[in-house]
Amino acid sequence: MNTSAVTPVERGLTPRSTGTYPVLELRDASKSFGHVVALNQVNLSVHAGEVLAVVGDNGAGKSTLVKVISGVHRPDMGELLVHGSRISPGHPTEARAQGISTVFQDLALVETLDVAANMFLGRQISRWGVFANRRRMIAEAEKTLRTYQGNVPSVRVAVGELSGGQRQSVAIARAIRENNPIVLMDEPTAALGVQETARVGSIINSLRAEGKAVVIVSHDLGFVFEHCDRIQVMRLGRSSATRDVRDTTREGVIGLITGAVPGDDTRDHRPRSGS
Amino acid sequence: MRGTGGALVSIPAAEGHRSAPSRRRRMTQWAFGSAELVVALVIILFVLVGATQSAQFFDGLTWINILRNTVFVAIAGCFTTIVLVNGGLDLSIGSVFMAGAVGGAAVADAGYGNLLAFLAGIGIGAAVGLLNGLLINYAQMPAIIVTLGTLFAVRALAVTLTQGQPIGPLPNDFAAIGQSDFLGLPLLVYYALIIVVVAYLLLHRTMFGWNVRAIGGNRVAARSMGIRVNRVATSVYVLSGVSAALAGVLMASRLGAGDPTLGNGFELQVIAAAIIGGTSIYGAIGTVPGTVLGALLLSVLTTGLILLKVDPGLQNFAVGVVIIVAAGMDRARKARMFRTSTNVARERQGKKASDKDANR
Ligand SMILES: Nc1ncnc2c1ncn2[C@@H]1O[C@H](COP(=O)(O)OP(=O)(O)O)[C@@H](O)[C@H]1O
Ligand SMILES: [Mg+2]
Fold this sequence. Notes:
Chain A contains nine helices and twelve strands. By secondary structure, chain A is of the alpha/beta class. Helix content of chain B is 71%, strand content 1%.
């Protein structure tokens, strides 16, 4: 392919249009679950005002990648840099404190709690430091959902009573509400209809306009080509290639996903170069 | 707890959101959705029917007795509710109750004074609770097995250390704590009230309580969103141990002795009170007032059946029936809660609709 002369690591570090260092950068991250190598020396970088798509087959390691960045999993090896400085989140709270907001694939909602409680899960507003300030959380949740138009009947409804699309709206609204510079979304349109998917698309566009660094995991290549700037293909735990949407086609990406087109990461066929 | 989602989201959240179908439907939802209301009605009904058979049902002394018997189960029950809502289970409280009684009695008997006696009892409870919590959450062992183990081990240790003999008679000033009255009611009732209010605030009003409920509802989600799941779920067992041991010290004071044969089956009574009061053993759902009413119902039932001269062998039969009916209502309540398409579909596939087994 067109960039095969450059090693993946160099490509990952190359500043894009903005000419600055990446807001979020993952270097050589590996993560295994028992015998399963879910991530194998994966690199990733996103700049401010850039939307990076992560695509790949089921089991390619996309969700593991998201969870490593958001502090749910600690990587076995590798490092994570935010605004150029190294962090090692051992817990989701630490990643969030570093400005990372996440919409997880499983949405991370508690079905038995109402929408307001879910909106402030792990980040409650307190009264006197110990009591839950329910009144303010309910008011804020209502405000957020009004802005976001989540189509949720009431913030006092248990999430277990909501439809899949409504749940997804709650999870996305929760992540956007935090107004963090880095936003990760793992399959944010999976349970959504056409109209709702379009709304998520416009949310992503406005995040870009606000100068956020956005990572979107998606199977919907149409959506990816419409809303993302760069596509990173994951295959069998590796990051096999990264392409600018302007330099590639849908067929090219599908080839990379299935392995019909060889990726740039050929480290398994040769000794690891010092990266 | 009222209404469809209200029952899920605990009392403070419950008032406003009923999505308001018909007034009548709301009323029935409220009646069926509220375990507290049902238990209160059952108590009133039982007393009214009983009163036609025995005048003692309206005797003040009978009620003082009933209340005094409720105290111990209620104190431990409030915190068992918190453990259950968190998605856990603590079987060890029967032995911890006894260990608290014996430990407190030993210190009081040695003349170290009331304060140290209480601190010693509570310390034992905290230590056993911490051990339970660490093994369950950090070593990731099943709660039922860990706490069954400590149930046996703690009792065996206490029996060995006391050589099976009660410690006492205890000093009068220690016994006075559990034997005196104030304004015609045993002091024990006032202590229990204070502890119940503390547990209520903790579970229903604090951020800690909401985190407990979130963990019981979906542990994976709670962790993903940054709740310190292991820390919270461990502290819940410490609280449970402390409350059971405190109830034990109070029992030693009331009896004027610390008896190592105390508390056999206490854990089952406590869990029964919570379940009768609407707490789900699948986590996330349950209230402190419900458990207090459950404890009161158990006490009214046992005392009442004696007054009615029912064969003592049949008393536990009645308790068993009440537990099963309560569990059945819990099931029905939950089936009402998630009438969403996904859950209906899951029900059709024969899977349980809202059970949280997957996360426990
Ligand atoms: N918590 C876990 N425990 C064990 N294996 C896991 C866990 N999470 C992911 N895996 C495994 O890691 C691989 C990558 O999974 P995942 O990151 O979810 O893939 P994707 O999101 O691309 O579909 C799969 O083989 C999956 O079974
Ligand atoms: Mg995934």
